[in-house]
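Hi R.,

Here's the chain you asked about this morning:
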Amino acid sequence: MATPLLLYERKREMNWLNNRIWKLRIWNDCHGQDLVEYALAAGMVAVAAVAAMPGLSATVNNVFSKIGSIITANVQ
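And here is the predicted structure, written out as tokens:
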């Protein structure tokens, strides 16, 4: 028959082993990884779009002004 101290040691070792297994499972879990990657990609696209806006705004404004003047000239 096992002594209470031996049972306590076994229980402590099993708890340590169970905790170790859970840590390994969490470490290897990659179910949410895709969502994080998509969020990072979307963030990079947003930063690139904001960085490109000052240069593009003048170009877009120029294109619409030319289109407006062509429409005005041909409608009259």
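One quick note: The chain has a mean pLDDT of 84.

Cheers,
M.
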